[in-house]
Amino acid sequence: MTVGTNIAPSSPAELLGDPHPLLEQLGAPEDLAITSPIAHAVDFHQVSDLPSLRRFLDAYRTDILVSIELPAIVSAYQHAARGEAKELVALDERLAHDRTIRRFAIASCRVGQRQLSKLRPMRDQRLVQRYLAAIDEGKARGWHTLVYGVSLAMFSLPLRQGLQNYANQTLQGFIQSAARSLRLAEGDCETLFAAQSTQVLPAISSALDPTRLIALP
């Protein structure tokens, strides 16, 4: 399978435009936000007002989204696009040794395995079947970020848009959850999301830079 990994949109509007319908399914808020493993890793329960929500989002964006999740999605996408099942399983194993995400391994892999099970009928895709077999044999865990990257490649979806969708869905999920419990003003939520999304864009471009070596645990 030949999949482009450095797709540059012609304008910011195109980048932030309506995502492919499949992206909405792959990145459903219930899978990528508050009910996902991320919330347990960066103390979302300590959010009590708008300033603490901003601090939480800054910490999540810097320590997890940009440092771990986006690179993991890119690497999984590239391995899947090249049919590198062995390398994908090795990446899965390396993530298990990272102290930050190890704290929410059970929840992450529950989400990932549920998503990956939806690809089980794709019997003509050897990489998917080999990844599923590795999970069944206890040789891999099925991290939700890796499954997301694999899914993007299997459906030939644009990687850049997929990364933006993942970031947007997750950030929006946190903000919307906090807004309900803290009764935050809609304008404050929109401003907060716009600021966070803007800061993610350079990280996405960096993750897609073919000259940049992606370092994962």
Indicate the topology:
Elements: H1 12-15, H2 21-26, H3 29-32, H4 38-41, H5 50-81, H6 85-95, H7 99-102, H8 105-117, H9 126-136, H10 144-154, H11 159-182, H12 186-207
Helix pairs in contact: 5-6, 5-10, 5-11, 5-12, 6-9, 8-10, 11-12
Number of helices: 12
Structural domains: how many: 1
The name of the CATH topology is: Urease accessory protein UreF
What is the straight-line distance between the termini?
A: 27 Å
Helical residues, percent: 55-70%
Largest sheet: none
Helix/strand/pairing class, anyone?
Answer: mainly alpha
Number of strands: 0
CATH architect. name: Orthogonal Bundle
Order of helices and strands: HHHHHHHHHHHH
Q: By CATH's scheme, which homologous superfamily applies?
A: Urease accessory protein UreF
What is the CATH C-level name?
Mainly Alpha
Broad shape: globular
Roughly how many Å is the radius of gyration?
17 Å
Can you walk me through this structure?
By secondary structure, this protein is mainly alpha-helical. The protein is 67% helix and 0% strand. Helix 5 packs antiparallel against helix 6, helix 6 crosses helix 9 (126-136) and helix 11 packs antiparallel against helix 12.
Q: How do you describe this structure in short?
A:
Helix content is 67%, strand content 0%.
Keywords:
single chain, 217 residues, mainly alpha, Urease accessory protein UreF, 67% helix, disordered N terminus
